[in-house]
């Protein structure tokens, strides 16, 4: 998968956050979109400290780690986000789209 495809997938799946986490995640998404991934990371880490089961926060953090070229971290966070999702369609999508970052890693590194 390409970097852009992973970002699109994770972005689509990350939209299910609850109201308590919406503001920090919205700010983190805005920072990420502005190319400020390092600044977005603490916001998502704080959201996960408040709600360690937040699928949306894991997915956003996975996106951030892709931008930071933290391939193992992004893969782990995206997988946690997919696994934590309570939406049945999202679980089915995650099962059909196994994360394979190795080809991306080879092209970028």
Oligomerization category of the chains in this entry: single chain
What is the CA-CA span between the terminal residues? 15 Å
Run of helices and strands: HHHHHHH
Helix content: over 70%
Number of strands: 0
What is the CATH first-level class name? Mainly Alpha
Q: What is CATH's topology name?
A: Serine Threonine Protein Phosphatase 5, Tetratricopeptide repeat
- What percentage of the residues does DSSP assign to strands (E)? under 5%
Number of domains: 1
Summed up:
This protein has 109 residues and is mostly helical. The protein has 7 helices and no strands. The protein has a single domain, classed as Alpha Horseshoe (Serine Threonine Protein Phosphatase 5, Tetratricopeptide repeat), CATH 1.25.40.10.
Structure description:
- This protein has one domain: Serine Threonine Protein Phosphatase 5, Tetratricopeptide repeat (Alpha Horseshoe).
- Helix content is 76%, strand content 0%.
- It has helices at 3-13, 19-33, 37-50, 55-67, 71-84, 88-96, 102-108.
- The model has no long low-confidence stretch (mean pLDDT 77).
Main features:
109 residues; mainly alpha; Serine Threonine Protein Phosphatase 5, Tetratricopeptide repeat; 7 helices; 0% strand; globular
